[in-house]
Design a protein that fits this description.
globular, alpha/beta
Length: 401
Amino acid sequence: MTRYWLRLALLASPLLIWPLFELFVLPIDYFTFRPWEALITVAVPVDVLGPFYPDQHLIKWSIGSYDTYTRRPNPRRQYEEWFTDDNGLRNRPRAVEPERYDVVLWGDSNIVGAFNTQDGILSEQLERACSCTAYNAGSAPLPIRTRDDRFADHPPKVVVINIPPFQDPVQLLHSGRFERISFGRLHHSPYPIWSLVLADRFMKQAGREWLRARLRVTELGRWVDYFAGVRAAATRNGEIAPAGLGHLAGAFHRMVERIEVKIGQLRGRPSPAPPSVPDAAPAPSSPPGSSAISEAIVAALEAAAIRQRDELRAAGIELVYLFDPHPDFPPYLPLAARLQADGVNVVYWETWPENFPDVYWNKEDSHWTERAIGDAALRIAQVLHDQALLASPRSVTTDHR
């Protein structure tokens, strides 16, 4: 009997040793194709740890998501250097933190700089363009949380929010882009930060992520992605948090409900209607690929943007909207023009440079290039200067590198 258990232990030993080898011996990015996948928080609540692992410095030759998921042979590699601060946000360490930041940038992975090196991301290019201080809060959930509550005590002078070109403009209305911008403190944990990072890495195990990336093109991979997305959504919504077994049981029940809805959709049942947005007029959906946005949708988006602008202005903060320079953006031109006429600060492109999609967007990945980021930084700096949005307006420099 003893020999049986010994052989069983020897058989299982690789499965037991491998996770420890991956966590303590291999580099954190060994199985990931970008620093984003290596550093993103997936299991520990982001209002405790932050969207990314805090206080990290990582250099990697990355492969774009398009090339990765299509298994492109000999893909082009992109040099990326990443810094994250103690809030788990992508900011380079500073010798002295400013008492009050001039600009906070908030938005999606393009604001973070998912396929860009550190000195090419928008916050750093904007600092060089306007000689101001800029903080990258990209991918942070609302409220934007820090460990020292700095933005609650000393709010920034300007908040810049990027507006991506959703295929269906109604998705933009319900995307959370027009929620009240607020600031808070990261929740305290009795455990040290390094142990939370280790626990998160153990939960996501980069080796499994590597396998998932290769399964993604299969039906099984789509289900793996779906279940991972369900859990991520539950975490973002506060349904998964260290609050006891009863709380986790309730979260599991809600996750099962989502899965049942998905199964119903696969069987042809109608999906639930999206929640209504307060103070926004109901608007019909534009068909995918539509070349125009209906007047009702433009009016609803306009009202939501003005409300957000007024809320921030009441707190002593100015607002700037950055419409991403994307080939699908032209339908949003009427909205940008309307907001500009309403006195809302907007940055958008009315005309495009030659070969625009090729020079502004990576062919290997779904994110913009450093040239597009530099152009955006110059345009934002010009708005900050022209509208005197900073307490001490500074001249705009044309060298964004």
